[in-house]
Amino acid sequence: MSVPTVFISYSHDSLGHKEWVLKLATDLRNNGVDVILDQWRLAPGQDQVRFMADGITKSDRVIMVCTGNYVEKAEVGTGGVGYERLVVTAELVQNIDTSKFLPVIRGQSSSPPQIPMFLGPRMYVDFSEDAHYDTKLLELLRELHGSPANPEPPLGRNPFSG
């Protein structure tokens, strides 16, 4: 299987949140996922909008780290998250059934957790509890590598056919 390429979309809520995203990206890279992260690949003087558009369109998957602030920016359409919403929405219009966009919940106390409305009722990986980080990381890695914990068994033979 090829190496999955993943773009991480997140809002710069705080230094602690940026460090958490960096840890997630590092853990993914250490487990065979090629991560596109602004903290590694975007330097002063580079075009931020181009970086975001290329990251989203050229990656296999996009992890959207959904904090309350991220969801608010996505809904209102402000900042980098607002721009990324435009790129993501354009792809969703072309392929509504895509599984390319993967919400990750972080730092939310609401139940159920919030994801941007344009993502609809998509399944998410819930990293809200830091104590469950390793378990959720494994869940995310299984999804990105296409290795489910409970793979569907092959279809057996009809016991009533000749």
Strand order of the largest sheet: 2-1-3-4-5
Q: What are the segments in which pLDDT stays under 50 over at least 5 consecutive residues?
A: none
**Structure classification:** alpha/beta
Q: How many E-type strands?
A: 5
Largest sheet: 5 strands, parallel
**Global outline:** globular
Give the averaged pLDDT, no decimals.
89
**What value does the Rg take, in angstroms?**
17 Å
- The rounded distance between the terminal residues' Cα atoms is 38 Å
Along the chain, the helix and strand elements come as EHEHHEHHEEH
**What percent of residues adopt helix (DSSP H or I)?**
40-55%
Tell me the number of helical segments per DSSP (H or I, 4 or more residues long).
6
Topology overview:
Elements: E1 5-9, H1 15-29, E2 34-36, H2 38-41, H3 48-58, E3 61-66, H4 68-76, H5 79-94, E4 101-105, E5 125-126, H6 133-145
Parallel strand pairs: 1-2, 1-3, 3-4, 4-5
Helix pairs in contact: 3-5, 4-5
General description of the model:
The chain is α/β, with parallel strands linked by helices and 162 residues long. The chain is 42% helix and 13% strand. The chain has six helices and five strands; from the N terminus they run E-H-E-H-H-E-H-H-E-E-H. Helix 3 runs parallel beside helix 5 and helix 4 packs across helix 5 (79-94). The protein is globular, with a radius of gyration of 17 Å.
Summed up:
It contains six helices and five strands. The chain is of the alpha/beta class and 162 residues long. A five-stranded parallel beta sheet has the order 2-1-3-4-5, with helices on both faces.
